[in-house]
Amino acid sequence: MDFSLNKEQQDIIKASREFALGEFPDRAQEFDREETFDLEIRKKACELGFVGVYIEEKYGGAGMGIFESCLVTEEFFAVDAGSAATVVATTFGAHIINMFGSDEQKSKILPALTSGKSIMGCAITEPDSGSDAASASTTAIKDGDGYVINGSKMFITNGTIADFILVFCQTDPGNANRHERHNFLLVETDRAGFEANKLRGKLGIRASDTAELAFSNVRVPASNLIGHAGEGFKQMLAFFDQSRVVVAAQGIGIARAALEEAVAYTKKRHQFGRPVSSFQVTQFKLSEMATKIKAARNLCYEAAWRIDNKMFDPALVAMAKWYAGKVAVECADEALQMHGGYGYIDEYKVQRIYRDAKAIEIYEGTKEIEKLIIARNLLQ
Q: Which residues participate in catalysis according to the annotation?
């Protein structure tokens, strides 16, 4: 069993780290405070091939795998989660196009995303439908040669900045099987009846755009349907099976950022006449953080490797996502504690890390949902 990375993968890590360090730190606090982001940074990332790593080369991607996407993601999030989320999530939902879209849909959407010309979002969650996605009630009723969409979505990444939104809709609301009622429809955000309102005041990941969406008789052509009738729920599960591994990499990056801040601060800070890092209690905490991060990374790496090698393991994906979120929260908490009162003010990066970490346990499947998936596979 070989745990080493090849030369290309090592180069990806190095290049990703250099880009993030060069672009994120100077303005990270500004982006967090103003809840905004400079999209020119995203364009640079696209030009350098950091966006859409898993997308085929003929559509402008790097033609690599989910594993390499995780490598880029960890490095970006280890520098600043808010900036990183805005960059890597500008293709959010493209996995669905990549797996289930027609050649025409792929040619229309994917090159625009990887080149930085367009931004995408994926709208699944609703005000009254979170973990129970099958209860999503937004409708898309067939009308002539198209569909008419009505409903609302909540907590949608890129909602106010996206050019395209994949919308999870009921196309067959009367179907007795609640898992065969839905489809994804591609909605261009300049269509009449579409409205997006930015959500402000988030705890963390504040640079990333999040919105509430409303659809009032939004008409789209039938050619905007992804795949075949009734396949939306299965497509959503397949999407999350890939995207959740990348979210695990986000958590690992955040945890690593917390550890790096804790190491630097405790080496510099003196109490009782010596560095805080010389105290055994501090060393134990740092050791535990490093071990948890390594364990989370191993889960993430194996889950991603299995996806890329057609040996998908849903329980392993859930383990990676749940545990990486747990580690991110725990490491951020310990790092802030080691900063003492200084960790509680925004002059120090650790307070932002602390706020950013919690999102990993919530979005793209709460920790409770991940545990249910693990248990379900154990008990089958």
A: 364
Of 88, 234, 85, 90, which is closest to residue 168 (Cα–Cα)? 234
Q: Are strands 182-188 and 270-271 parallel, antiparallel or unpaired?
A: unpaired
The region that residue 149 occupies, defined by phi over 0 for left and psi between -120 and 50 for alpha, beta otherwise, is beta
Residues 6+ apart with CB under 8 A from 13: 5, 71, 75
Q: Which long-range contacts (CB under 8 A, 24 or more apart) does 2-11 make?
A: 5/71, 9/67, 9/68, 9/71
In sequence order, what are the residues at sequence separation of 6 or more whose Cβ sits closer than 8 angstroms to the Cβ of residue 258?
A: 289, 328, 331, 332, 334, 335, 350, 353, 354, 357
With a CB cutoff of 8 Å and minimum separation 6, the contacts of 362 are: none
Q: Are 171 and 181 in contact (CB under 8 A)?
A: yes
CA distance 332 to 256: 9
Q: What local confidence, expressed as pLDDT, does residue 361 receive?
A: 98
Burial of 250 (0-12, 13-18, 19+ CB in 10 A): buried
What single letter denotes the amino acid at residue 1? Answer: M
Kindly report, residue by residue over 76-124, the tens digit of the pLDDT: 999 999 999 999 998 999 999 999 999 999 999 999 999 999 999 999 9
For each of the domains in the chain, give its residue range(s) and CATH number, in order of start: 7-114 (1.10.540.10), 120-230 (2.40.110.10), 233-379 (1.20.140.10)
Q: How far apart (Å, rounded) are the C-alpha atoms in residues 118 and 39? A: 11
Residues 205, 352 contacting (CB under 8 angstroms) = no
Q: What pLDDT digit, counting tens, does each position of 298-321 carry?
A: 999 999 999 999 999 999 999 999
Nearest-5° Cα angle at 221, 219 to 224: 110
* Lookup result for tokens 């103003």: 34
Low-confidence ranges of the chain (pLDDT < 70): none
Q: Quote the distance between the C-alpha of residue 311 and its chain's center.
A: 22
